[in-house]
Structure formats: C-alpha cells, structure tokens
UniProtKB/TrEMBL annotation:
Transmembrane regions: none
Keywords for this protein: Hydrolase
Family note: Belongs to the lipase/esterase LIP3/BchO family.
InterPro entries for this protein: AB_hydrolase_fold, AB_hydrolase_sf, Hydrolase_4
GO CC entries: membrane
GO MF entry, a single one: hydrolase activity
Name the record gives this protein: Alpha/beta hydrolase
Signal peptide residues on this chain, from the entry's feature table: none
Length: 266
C-alpha cells in the first residue's frame, strides 16, 4: 500500500482506479467522514478526503492558520505531495470555497470540479442566520436551529427517539463553541474572502458542476444557481427536490446519479 503524505487525518479508499482520483474537501466544523455515504458506495475512482485544522477540535500544527486560505494551500500541497493527477475535486459548503482557491494553485492537476452547496458571495445576506444557527449553546438549540438549517426535513431525526437519546447524551457545547471554531466561523462571511473565491472561480476552465438542495438554511438556492452560471464557464447546475444543505444524505440515489453522469462524462 502506498504511503500517503499529509500531516492531519485523512481517508483513502483504494478502488484501484487511480487515473482520475476524487479528493473531497469538507465543510465548516465537519470531517473526512461527511461524504461517507458516497465514498462507501462508489467504486469508479480512488477516493481521498482530508481534514482541516480547527474543525472538530483538530489542533493546527506547523504554525498552520485556521482559515480557508490555509485549507486551500493544504489541499494543493496534498495533491502535489502525493503526485495526484487528473483530480476530481469535490467541495461541500466551506469546502466549495476551498477547492476554488486550491484550483488556482494546482490547476494543471485538476480534471473536474464538483460543488455541493458551496460557500459563495450570494450567501453573505444570510450571515445573521448563519451566526444564529451554526453555534448551538444547548441541545434544544441544536435540534431547533442547527439541524433544521442543514436538512430539508429535520423531523427524520427529531422523531427518532433513539437518535434523540444518543445525541442528547453526546451533545457538548464545546464541540460547537470554542476558540478555534469561533475564529474560523467569524472569518467565513468576509467580503474579501468571497471576492478572492469569485476571482478564482472565474479562472476555472475544467468541467464543473453545482448541486444544491431545494431548501438550504444558509444559502439562497436560486441566487446561487444564477451566480454560478455567470461566474464559471459552462458549469452544470442542479438542485435536488426535498433536500437541504446535506442533499447527499437526504436523496442519495439522485445525488449519486448526478455525480455518476458528470464524472463519467468524457
């Protein structure tokens, strides 16, 4: 088994399909496990996912910053250090901004770009909602504010007594409110960052795809779809009915079909 170089936790699923490897960039306070429903049900490409410091309590090393700019550099360096070519980048939420900035750094190694409910300039008007929902201080706020902005139908969780019991037991305020995640969270709705991401998006020339949920708690779906059409050349845009920010969890069959059609398209 080949040695994979990266200073933080990573996921590698070896499908013996290294020609067009997928590399996944997770979202705010998420992890390499976020897209497991896809990773564990996909055999057409090797799959990588890498962690970013500051998220889920992961402490930075080597003087790394807690910022999207740093994450883009880490992602680009991961691709270079592991000599990955023809990479298919997938970015969810914050990871969408990360892959845009990383593209500029290693564009000769990228073959396709896939955006899943990505952070972008059109989400700035929802900044107040973001700060009110993404940092729950109690379990009640977790189930009444945080979960509903991520999912189209939060009742699939709240009506599940076992899920409620386990998550209430495991809920920790410090998982959602701590110095690292607050620093990162406050840095995201920044006009300069959004402008830099937009400038990077305008330089993308490889085939690209955007997937949104029908109802996203922190992004305006229609505004985002139009923005991407204007900003990235020849981007394919889709939204999946009865799904939210985590559209891959709520309608995996449609999600997988869209990715399969796009990834396998010559």
């Amino acid at each position: 088994m080949k040695e994979i170089k990266y200073p933080y936790p990573f996921k590698f699923i070896n499908n013996n399909k290294s020609e067009y490897p997928i590399v996944f960039a997770h979202g705010f306070n998420s992890s390499i496990n976020c897209l497991d429903i896809f990773a564990n049900n996909w055999k057409d490409n090797d799959f990588y996912a890498i962690s970013f410091p500051g998220n889920q309590g992961l402490k930075p090393i080597e003087n790394h910053e807690i910022s999207v700019y740093q994450y883009a550099q880490l992602l680009a360096q991961f691709i270079i250090d592991n000599d990955l070519k023809n990479v298919i980048l997938i970015g969810h939420s914050m990871g969408g901004g990360t892959i845009s900035l990383a593209y500029e750094l290693v564009k000769d190694r990228i073959s396709k770009m896939i955006y899943l409910a990505p952070m972008n300039k059109t989400s700035l008007p929802k900044e107040e909602v973001y700060f009110d929902t993404y940092f729950p201080r109690t379990f009640n706020e977790f189930i009444t504010k945080f979960i509903p902005v991520l999912y189209y139908d939060a009742s699939i969780f709240t009506n599940d007594s076992q899920w409620m019991k386990e998550n209430k037991k495991n809920f920790k305020v410090s998982d959602h409110i701590n110095d690292m995640i607050m620093k990162l969270g406050e840095s995201l709705p920044d006009p300069k960052l959004m402008n830099d991401i937009e400038m990077a998006m305008k330089k993308i020339t490889v085939p690209s795809m955007l997937i949104m949920g029908e109802k996203d708690g922190v992004m305006k779906r229609d505004n985002c779809l139009e923005y991407f059409k204007k900003t990235i050349k020849n981007v394919e845009t889709y939204w999946i009915k009865k799904t939210g920010h985590m559209m891959f969890d709520e309608d995996f069959d449609t999600f997988k079909m869209l990715l399969k059609n796009f990834i396998n398209k010559k």
